[in-house]
Amino acid sequence: MGENGNQFYNVYEVFSKKTEKAPFQHQFSLLAPNADMALVMAKENFFRREPVADIWVVKRENIRGLSQGEREMLKKLDKDYRETKGYGYLKKKWRDYNQEQFTEKHIMGGREESR
Amino acid sequence: MNTESMHQQERTELKELIYQLADDDFILAYRGSEWLGLAPHIEEDVAFSSINQDMMGHASMYYHLLEDLGEGDADRIAHLRKPEEFRNAILLEMVNGRGTYLDKPDYDWAFAVVRNYFYAIHKQVRLESLRVSSYEPLANAAKKIMMEQYYHLMHWEIWFKQLVTSTDDARQRMLIAVDKVWKEFGGVLTLGPSYGEFVKAGLIEDEPLLKKRWLNRIEKVFKETGIELAGEPAIESGNGRKGEHTPDLAEALATLSEVYATNPASGW
Amino acid sequence: MQAGLSFEQLTNDEKHQHFMDRINRGEKIEADDWMPDDYRTSLIRLISMHGISEIMGALPEKEWVPKAPSLHRKLAIMAKVQDEMGHGQLLLRVAEDLMAPLGKTREDIMQDLFSGRLKFHNVFHMEAPTWGDAGMIAWLVDGAAIISQSMMLDSSYGPYARALKRICAEEVFHAQHGESIILALAEGTPEQRALLQDSLNRWWKSLIMFFGPKSAKETGNSNADKNIMYKIRTKTNEDLRQEFFTKYIPRIWALGLTIPDETIHFDEETRMWVYEDVDWKEFKQIVSGNGPRSQDRLDLRRRSYDSNGWVRDALAAQKAI
């Protein structure tokens, strides 16, 4: 191998969605010199069997992730004022008024959130 | 058109055409399978193998069409014919390089890229014509194959363009491969001695028309990458559509049927 | 972790304690997490060996790809060998990310393989002279591999566990591909049955060796204990070998095949299989590159690597800036 030796390739991270409705999900990484090559390699390396609706390749260098210290700091204190679990008492309150509390289904306009 | 309404003569022509389609894919996929584990890097090894599997899958679809046309068992058709009964173009049977896949392989990646890329363009052109073939089972097969063909073409196009516009060494090797492929590509483009009958029966479009479409696409790529067009592609080593072949085919057939031929009647 | 302090402010001892606490809580370590050098070295040793074994493991089966005896078998074995290469790709990526802080890349892995510093599984040093071997490798060698890989699905190292999850999912197809070949031969002509028995005779010793020695005393070193401490693996070599016996010996017998070990039997008292142990000096010889096909296969790999050097150089010139 020539002088390009260790700088031969870039690392590309591969993301995909399984169906059109699904969100993108990280799959794996591969080595390729550029995005075009990374894309054709991604298709055959990671989607030989499973169905796939879309593929992204992203040069790893272009991802700003968190350091370990930053990740540790994500384990934050409870913020119940911004989550439904902080409002558990409402159900009883509405019952006092002979009313039923709206569920997620009511609030979403009659639709259950589909997953 | 279906098999019942077909005249004996038309039936013969139809089979002749399908043999060409099947054998082209089969032999090139075989050559590709010899590369397994030897590609320039691991990611490409996996990708190349997908293409070869797809291509052998296409051959298998065509052999099953022949089985339906009364040519006997698809495995027997693929494994037990004599070299002169094969209808593939000679370019596609040529060895990958010096050595064998088991012993001191010195395979030429430039040749692999150029041969596969030029063939993929032709296959695309041919499928676009076959999808409206008068023989419905063939038209249906063509439509299915086209789905996979899109990514094969993309794969080889990226390889071709990146290598030919890269280092001087790479460009030199690629140009040598283009020359080598050019000398035989006429053999891929021809539909053989009975092509007039294929066209009359509405099985596929006219040979010069398909050839022109292929050449137009190639010209565009050559222009983009600064390669000079060296006239019409030739048929130097013989016409595979007429059953003319090189020792490379005989060697390939001996290998691919080695186990099957020990007992074709048994289950494997 | 000490309240208020950011991770970077901890002393090395505190980081080590924090790391062991996480492992013991069943948390997963990621590539850019702090880890003891010892953990990193163990992982690199294990995963680069595993990855390169997949790559080298493609070669004996690859010998049978062009020769597979039907269109369906040709397609299936091509897909199977391709998967092995694909597994190699996944694992080498995991190893490469671990090696990156040491300034090493895939190029170093390849050079280590060629120089003999990086070893690969004993089974892939052996000959595969018949189609029966193509079946035997997919059935029993892959069967053995599934047992040792699935043990590590819950490995403390997250990227390895994720790679193994993908790999094990595909191994199910491999196992069935192998069973299908084996059953066709077992139900075939006397010649086909003989092919199968010959192949079993040829592979049995290698299969015993596959799981490694019982303890460090057989070969003078064993990394298994350390890997258990770090929760990279959970079972000993012998646990795995016994699992393999329990899973496969009844099937081998059911097909009317003979295991080339007259002493082999299940001891009801100890609930263990009793078998004839192999010569572990021979094992060491084989994995050191002195097996019957070690040098041929290394040569094949080296040759393809060298003759394609121009391609990698050409692509490096096309590298996105």
TrEMBL record, chain A:
Pfam families, per database record: PaaB
This protein's name: 1,2-phenylacetyl-CoA epoxidase subunit PaaB
Species, as recorded: Fictibacillus terranigra
Automatic annotation (TrEMBL), chain B:
Entry annotated with the keyword Oxidoreductase: yes
Coiled-coil blocks: none
Segments crossing the lipid bilayer: none
Domain of life where this protein originates: Bacteria
Gene3D superfamilies associated with the record: 1.20.1260.10
First-tier enzyme category under EC: oxidoreductase
Enzyme Commission designation: 1.14.13.149
Assigned keywords, A-Z: Oxidoreductase
Pfam families linked to this entry: PaaA_PaaC (PF05138)
UniProt GO molecular function: phenylacetyl-CoA 1,2-epoxidase activity
PANTHER family given in the database record: 1,2-PHENYLACETYL-COA EPOXIDASE, SUBUNIT C (PTHR30458:SF0), PHENYLACETIC ACID DEGRADATION PROTEIN PAA (PTHR30458)
NCBIfam families linked to this entry: PA_CoA_Oxy3
Entry protein name: 1,2-phenylacetyl-CoA epoxidase subunit PaaC
Name of the coding gene: paaC
From TrEMBL, chain C:
Enzyme class: oxidoreductase
Transmembrane residue ranges: none
InterPro entries: Aromatic_CoA_ox/epox, Ferritin-like, Ferritin-like_SF, PaaA, PaaA_PaaC
Enzyme Commission numbers on file: 1.14.13.149
Pfam families to which the protein is assigned, alphabetical: PaaA_PaaC
Keywords: Oxidoreductase
Superkingdom of source: Bacteria
Any one GO molecular function term: phenylacetyl-CoA 1,2-epoxidase activity
NCBIfam families (alphabetical): PA_CoA_Oxy1
UniProt protein name: 1,2-phenylacetyl-CoA epoxidase subunit A
